[in-house]
Every structure is written in C-alpha cells, then in structure tokens.
Amino acid sequence: xxxxxxxxxxxxxxxxxxxxxxxxxxxxxxxxxxxxx
Amino acid sequence: xxxxxxxxxxxxxxxxxxxxxxxxxxxxxxxxxxxxxxxxxxxxxxxxxxxxxxxxxxxxxxxxxxxxxxxxxxxxxxxxxxxxxxxxxxxxxxxxxxxxxxxxxxxxxxxxxxxxxxxxxxxxxxxxxxxxxxxxxxxxxxxxxxxxxxxxxxxxxxxxxxxxxxxxxxxxxxxxxxxxxxxxxxxxxxxxxxxxxxxxxxxxxxxxxxxxxxxxxxxxx
Lengths: 37, 221
Fold this sequence. Notes:
The structure holds two protein chains of two kinds.
Chain A: E1 4-9, E2 15-19, H1 22-35
Antiparallel strand pairs in A: 1-2
Chain B: H1 21-35, E1 47-50, E2 58-61, E3 66-72, E4 77-81, E5 89-99, E6 106-112, E7 120-124, E8 128-133, E9 136-141, E10 150-157, E11 166-174, E12 180-188, E13 197-203, E14 210-220
Antiparallel strand pairs in B: 1-2, 3-14, 4-13, 5-10, 5-14, 6-9, 6-13, 7-8, 7-12, 10-11, 11-12
C-alpha cells in the first residue's frame, strides 16, 4: 500500500506532495493505533 | 531657540525678527509633521498600538484574527508546517472535508507536531474522556451521503509556548441526516511549541486520506 503526504510550508509557501518515508509511516500507524477504540 | 515642553518642537524666540516668521512657522510645522508621521495611514477597523517603548513610535494594527494560510487536504495525510509564532491562540478552521473512502462514517484527526508521545487528554461530547493519545479526534465525516458537508473549528491556546502546556477546544460536525455534532476540550500536555499540524483519517473500509477539503489557519491576538 502506498502512503502519500502533502506538506504545505506556510512560511515559504512551498507545497510538496510525495510518498511518506518509513519514519513518517511508523508515526502515522502508531497514531492510528492509539486512536483505535 | 525655545522649544515646547512636552514634544520639544522648536518655536521662535520673542526677540526673533518678524521677517523670519514664515521660516519659523515652517520649522515648527515640520517638527510636528515628523513627530506625528506614525499617525498617518491605517485601514478601516484598524487600531493604533505602540510599536516600541520609544515615544511617538506607533503602528496601525488589526484586532481581528489574521489569516495565516489556506491549505487543501489531499493524500493519506496533509501537513501544515512552519506555523509562525506570535499569537495567543492558533485557530484552525476546517471546511468541506471530502475523504477518499466511501464509508458512511470516517474518523477525522489532527496531530500537532506529528507527535507519537501520547500527550493528549481530551473530553468530548459530555460523555467520554480520552487519555494518552497522540492525536486529537475532531469528529466523524462521511464518504457516502452528504459528502463534504462538514465544518470544524479547533482553537489551541499557548500553541507557541516553550514553557506552558496547550489547552484546546473544538466543535463542529457533519451535515448528515443523523446530525453528528461534536464538541470537546482537552490539553496537549507538552511544553514543546506547536509548529506543524498533520491531518489524517481512519476509515472502517476503503483507503484512508483526503480527496479535498480546506484548512485555514488564523492567528488570534
């Protein structure tokens, strides 16, 4: 499964859309795990 | 040359020649003009505030919330980064969130600083306390009927403090037939300043993430 993320830097206005890194996916999945009721 | 008591504007001496009156008036007027230059300008509904501790140093400013940014939600997650400091409250206004999944009910989250340190405690709907979470659950959105008919507001206090914890409050809901309205209060029990927000979903079926939606950040003074 492909996880994508969009990052909007509001200081520079730069917007980047890319696949999530393994570290970002881990945080995302950890957060989902803590949120699961 | 004599000068006025409070502002030090130059005035002619009693012994000055009358023929020099025009130049003397120009000197006085130019002094006043220079001193009060900060009072010029401003726009409708702005108020005058001190710009520094220096005498007569003023600036025109607005007391209304300041729009910091507008971001469209897409992807599995959307991150708003490099959020500026300098306001007492960070207001997050979220509208018309359209998820990828077509589930009836999709849980909608935001994670300040994308932390996994489980610092959040919040109380919502008058019935439920959630503790040791890494993300704030803003409420439910729908992917099948009434898609995108939702709105949420999240106010985070002390968001830029490196000394204090961050209390927050939120409310909103989805305009579906069952009327899912949510409100809650909580605390981010961390003294780290909040500089980013990460939005995500958990769908019971289908793919997590967003097709669209608008997030506006406001700074409240």
